[in-house]
Amino acid sequence: MSMNSNLFEPGKSKPERSFVQLAVKQNQRLDGRRSNESRDVELTFGTDWGSVAVSMGDTKVMAQVICEMGLPSLSRPNEGKLQLNVLLGGVAFLDEAYSTHDQRSLKLNSLLERTFRSSKCIDLESLCVAAEKHVWCIRVNVNVINHDGNLYDASSIATLAALMHFRRPDVSYKDGELRIFKQNGLEFTPLLFHHYPVSVTYCVYKSSGQPILDPTLLEENAADSVIVLSFNSYQELCSLTAGGTAPTNAPIVMQCARNAAARCKSLLDFVRKALALDEERRSQGDRSVNGLVGLILNTEHKLSYNKLMGIQKQQQQQQQQLPPGENMELDNESSETPVANEEPSKKEGAGAPMDTSDWLPHDEDSQELPMRSEAIPSKAGKYKTNKKTRPRKQNNSDSEEEAKQYI
Amino acid sequence: MSATNTIVMPGERIAAIEELAKSKRVILGPGLRRLDDTVVASKAGPLRHKEPGTFWVDNYQRRYIPARGDLILGIVRAKSGDIYRVDIGAADTASISYLAFEAATKKNRPDLIPGDLIYARVLNASADIEPELVCVNSVGKRGKLGVLTEGFFFKCSLNLGRMLLRENCPVLAALTREMPYEIAVGVNGRIWVKAHSLKETVALANAISALEQSGCAEIDKICGNLGDYLQT
Questions:
Q1: From A82, A144, B20, B138, which residue has the greatest number of CB atoms within 10 Å?
Q2: How do the domains of chain A map onto residue ranges?
Q3: Residues 37-76, chain B: which have Cβ within 8 Å of A?
């Protein structure tokens, strides 16, 4: 049975591959989407804090956040821990899911680790109760229920939504005695975030220069290379994975990056909006979602990206109209995106060395200030102290990305 | 074949067949099992009956169980020695000899590489040895068998594959009225289609996949949608 493994999934035979290549060349997709169109994202929040089911088409992912008290590591005695576990066992046709060398689950795990842990999106110091003794260990269990491509996006949305949804119990530490108030009527506290990263996946084919967004499993398996970009709401790059054999040049990656940054932002807005709706529902005392099946099948509590963001888009347009001065730089960026011809001129302006570390963070830097103040004006004050140190750190971690070497 | 409305569940005793078996000979097909003098269902689904005394359970299944004489679609997985290993969606990979192709000799070997799609017949199938395939008939001609190039290939449930192959199935005839196409249906739940253009092929594949949810009765509606899709 193990011999038979990966041929059960689509996209492993030659006719399928050549067909997808041909379809991409003719700018068509099998499900009728355009190349920059994604499937609808649906979120369902569970009864517990920090349990979320995400579905994108037939891809279904569940994430559950668990917290417990634990010992901090010796090197960072005053920081909590964040662990990410990915479980691919639910997908029946991936026989190799159980083997330790499974590339797929390792890749997914490392992507989530880089997106959420290495980018330091959660304020781990706030999870410290007593230095060197008691810290909160936050664990995110990402359970893949069905795999129809683009696991990266689905699981990163699930992880982000679960972490944002999560509330941990209050705790007190007095005279060496630790007390956790679990059902005390006290408010549970949400996690503190530095920034909110989400990933966006593109597939690139040899037959066409046009990368396609949100691939299905067939498209993903037939692709020559897959690019996964994670951005936060300030349009800062959090992680970049680019592998495969398709010739991807800098303009393609930049084009992907710009579109991805915009999509990440709207995805985050969607998650925020969904959380707000869930909060509203909870305050009315309606918390019943029946078990796992209820979580996946429930249509009543399902929050759809297309539906929610239809309203959101109008609001964004209004927002952009209000402060025109602040958005100047952003508008320049977005107007450049669809026109590929303008890319070369930009390259010349940036100078001879075509290094991503040279010009990718450069773009981000120029955007940072106006973007940040515009992104979440209401919360700006709350996180200001954290943010001042963060952007520098962020750029350092960007330049460390190994992905750069592949490009 | 008559479709009775009885749905049986695994482990359910079927008294009607036991009664019939007392008077005449009864053949138990897939999904039914004899335990001493009782008949018990081993799969869930509607119970089917064919005169005079054949019974089986038409259950929903995606894993193929090889049977001698079946026409199937397989993906070449590897070369090993003088055989190719072929994935046919069963629990085990099947094998096909180099010599099981038309005009193949020891010198003149067929040129198959991993990933190729072949339409083949099951020559040998038993529970304990791996199934063996051939791409020629008894007189050494290939007929319709062999490597399938171009076109689109997708997987479906075994039921859908069987349904399309039924003599009185209206689906393929209805689709023919919309456009010309080539199709190869394997009873292992794999379908290969090819139409004139890419768009037509996609439309065809989507129409056939849609049957999985809706059933034969809605084929006219699906064909109507197909026409709309192609015109846009």
A1: A144
A2: 2-406
A3: 75
Long-range contact list for B196-199, CB < 8 A, 24+ apart?
A: B198/A19, B198/A22, B198/A23, B198/A26, B198/A28, B199/A28, B199/B230
Are B226 and B158 found together in one domain? yes
For residue A303 the two structure tokens come to 């929050």
Q: Does residue A173 contact residue A181 with C-beta atoms inside 8 Å?
A: no
In this structure, the answer to whether residues B41 and B81 fall within a common structural domain is no
**Residues in A touching B155 (Cβ below 8 Å):** 10
Q: Is residue B64 part of a domain?
A: no
CB-based contact A7 B198, cutoff 8 Å:
no
Of A10, A15, A22, the CB nearest to B117: A15
Per-residue pLDDT of chain A (407 residues), as tens digits, is: 334 444 467 777 888 888 998 898 888 888 888 888 888 888 888 878 888 989 888 888 999 999 888 898 889 888 888 999 988 876 765 555 445 446 778 888 899 999 998 888 899 888 888 888 889 999 999 988 888 888 899 999 999 999 999 888 888 888 777 777 776 556 688 889 999 999 999 998 888 878 899 999 888 888 888 899 999 888 888 888 888 888 778 888 888 888 899 899 889 999 998 888 888 887 777 666 655 666 666 555 677 777 777 655 555 555 544 444 443 343 444 333 333 333 333 333 333 333 344 344 444 433 333 333 333 333 333 333 333 334 444 444 444 444 444 43
What CATH number does the domain containing B219 carry? 3.30.1370.10
Cα-flanking dihedrals φ and ψ of residue A325, to 5°? -65, -40
Residue of A nearest to B64 (CA): A8
Give the range of the structural domain holding residue B219, as residue numbers without chain letter: 152-231
The fold for domain A2-406 equals Ribosomal Protein S5; domain 2 (3.30.230)
How open is the CA angle A112-A113-A114, to the nearest 5 degrees?
A: 90
pTM of the full predicted structure?
0.76
- Residue A323 φ then ψ, to 5°: -100, 90
